[in-house]
Design a protein that fits this description.
Shape: elongated
Largest sheet: 6 strands, antiparallel
Low-confidence stretches: none
Number of strands: 15
Bound molecules: guanosine-5'-diphosphate, manganese (II) ion
Length: 350
């Protein structure tokens, strides 16, 4: 589960990792200026997409709030906008903790040149070191030397130690600070944070309450910018449906196996999640009724279809147990019941 930046930073602050002061704002708010407005989306690359704006005046604030709210970044419309005190940044560094599965260890990565072009930086300068609770602080001096901030080693030592504690206690799988800013006053501050938490650990964190819910193992996002969303029953049929969408030249947004539980609640929730993908034009429902009854699914579809915005077309194929009854229910509500998946794919290609 990926947290939004402001959610991640609230956690960092609890672990005494220095973060800039900030608040989620709306267009009517009047935060103290200057301020940096930051689109809250669960993906990176916001700076390059226009999702980070330094604002000094009141009119500029209104304009930037409007511009940012209309962006789509990697297929995500900002769910909120976070306003932060602007930092005078002298240098941008990179720091992260990840799980290295080959080593079976938490690994610390650091680079002296952080910021929006981190992918283009020289890999030879990347610091990589497995860390444990015992060793994390003792590497402070070598890390500070590597980042070319030798006199900051005490602050850096505290920072990585707190970050490590946060990573393990919160069951994170990724904790990335990019940039770790060295301010003009010589203070280290986490200017950005990406945090991913382990969905499988949700059971021991009843307090987790984030914008993105712990993944439903049956609903997997494949591409947030995909154009076709799919729902099928059974993992095999769900995978075959995704494959058929790809073969027909479309880009699938998700994989979804609704299993045997096609209730109004589960279908509505699935439709709601699909409509969050801003490029989706078609939702394909592909059900083979065995134990699941097609008429039950059809009724759940009818009761849920308002969860889809008008821009999204619904294409349904139900076959097997009680398909004729399902057909009658769908026709009554003006939904075309397609004879096969091929028929749907041919129609959306046209
Ligand atoms: P990302 O593009 O999604 O990784 O978003 P970041 O939060 O990392 O912001 C991108 C870039 O905006 C940073 O690398 C900084 O150069 C710049 N930036 C972000 N916040 C501030 C700030 O408070 N002050 C200044 N001067 N630059 C900032
Ligand atoms: Mn960043």
């Amino acid at each position: 589960m990926k947290l939004l930046e402001h959610e991640a930073k609230a956690i960092l602050a609890r672990y005494r990792v220095p973060v800039p002061g900030g608040q989620v704002v709306s267009a009517d708010d009047a935060p103290k200026l200057p301020v940096v407005l930051k689109a809250q989306v669960p993906v990176g690359g916001r700076g390059k997409a226009g999702g980070i704006r330094l604002v000094t005046g009141r009119d500029e604030y209104t304009e930037a709030m409007r511009d940012i709210s209309q962006l789509s970044i990697g297929g995500h419309v900002p769910s909120s906008i976070y306003a932060e005190e602007s930092l005078g940044i002298a240098r941008e560094l990179y720091l992260s903790l990840v799980i290295n599965r080959d080593l079976g260890a938490v690994e610390l990565l650091a680079h002296p040149l952080g910021g929006v072009d981190i992918e283009e930086q020289d890999e030879a300068q990347l610091y990589r070191q497995p860390v444990t609770r015992e060793t994390v602080n003792s590497m402070a001096q070598s890390l500070a030397d590597h980042l070319d901030i030798p006199s900051q080693y005490l602050a850096l030592g505290d920072l990585v130690e707190n970050l490590y504690r946060c990573f393990t206690e919160q069951d994170a799988t990724l904790l990335e600070i990019n940039p770790l800013a060295l301010t003009d006053d010589g203070v280290l501050v986490a200017a950005d944070c990406k945090m991913e938490l382990d969905d499988a650990a949700a059971y021991r964190h009843p307090e987790w309450d984030f914008s993105q819910k712990a993944a439903d193992a049956n609903f997997v996002t494949l591409s947030p910018s995909g154009t076709v969303a799919t729902m099928a029953n059974g993992a095999g049929l769900a995978m075959a449906t995704v494959d058929a969408v790809v073969s027909a030249g479309h880009s699938p947004a998700n994989f979804l196996d609704i299993g045997g539980a096609a209730t109004v609640d589960s279908v509505s929730e699935s439709f709601r999640r699909m409509s969050e993908f801003t490029n989706v034009q078609t939702v394909i429902v592909n059900i083979f009724g065995g134990i699941v009854r097609c008429d039950t699914v059809a009724e759940a579809i009818i009761a849920s279809k308002d969860a889809l915005p008008p821009r999204i077309k619904l294409a349904v194929r139900l076959s097997g147990n009680r398909a004729n009854e399902a057909d009658a229910i769908l026709s009554e509500h003006g939904i075309t019941h397609h004879s096969s998946l091929e028929a749907i794919l041919t129609e959306i290609a046209a």
